[in-house]
Amino acid sequence: MAKQTIIVDGGYQPNTVTFKQGKPAELTFKRVSDRGCVQVVQSKDLGFKKELPLNEEVTFNIDTSKPGEYGFACGMDMVKGKVVVE
Ligand SMILES: [Cu+2]
């Protein structure tokens, strides 16, 4: 299982994560401050939308069956990041 963690602190650190095609993958978000507007993370591409409680880890399984770039963003679609499957 490939695992990556993104720290959410007004933005996404890092804002791009890469997974290998065909390998099971988990992406975790951990929001560590109230800065910015990133209390919700959503992705139409990856099929999730969830609140990020402060200082808690929220994990999504990532479908790595198809290579490509899959965007995610805050609840208002302003702060953006992406998952690359290659
Ligand atoms: Cu926002």
Which CATH class is shown?
Answer: Mainly Beta
Could you describe the largest sheet, including whether it forms a barrel? Answer: 5 strands, mixed
- Structural class label: mainly beta
CATH superfamily: Cupredoxins -  blue copper proteins
List cofactors, ions and other ligands.
Answer: copper (II) ion
Q: Determine the N-to-C terminus distance.
A: 15 Å
**What is the name of the CATH architecture?**
Sandwich
Overall structural domain count: 1
Outline: globular
Care to count the β-strands?
9
Here the CATH topology equals Immunoglobulin-like
Estimated share of beta-strand residues: over 45%
Give the strand order, joined by hyphens, for the main sheet: 3-9-8-5-6
Compute the number of helices: 0
Q: Whole-number average pLDDT?
A: 97
Helix content: under 10%
Q: Give start-end ranges of low-pLDDT stretches.
A: none
Round the Cα radius of gyration to an integer and report it.
12 Å
Helices and strands, in order, run as: EEEEEEEEE
